[in-house]
Amino acid sequence: MGKHPATLAAALTVPEVCALLRTTRLTVYNLIESGALPAYKVGPYWRIDVDDLERYRARGKAQDPANRRRFPSTPASAGVPGTGAVTDPGGGTK
User: Fold this and answer.
1) How many domains in the chain?
2) Is residue 20 within 8 Å of 12, Cβ to Cβ?
3) Does some domain include residue 83?
């Protein structure tokens, strides 16, 4: 008595996962909601199995759509010399 079965995986709380991933609670909740990070509830609290967190980390953040950064789109020619009209300091175009 007092020992957990070997098959029972250790579970982490959301704040513990935040610390391990060095991210915010909102990010962890978004990962859970999107299904990228499997979790389950114990009463009102979310728990994440250590094995599931390790699998998530092994997949890598870049592969997970929930973690892809969204940058504003800019034209491919923006700031690239030779791709359009160039304005000279005098105000005219060349």
Assistant:
1) 1
2) yes
3) no
> Within a domain: residue 17?
yes
80 lies in a domain? Answer: no
33-89 residue pLDDT tens: 999 999 999 999 999 999 999 999 998 855 655 555 555 555 555 555 555 545 555
b/e burial code for range 35-69 (CB count within 10 A of at least 16 → b): ebbebeeeeeebbbbeebbeebeeeeeeeeeebee
pLDDT band at 13 (very low <50, low <70, confident <90, very high): very high
Global pTM reads 0.57
> CB–CB of 54/65 below 8 Å?
no
What are the helix (H) ranges across the chain?
Answer: 14-21, 25-34, 50-59
State the residue for tokens 């980390």.
Answer: 57
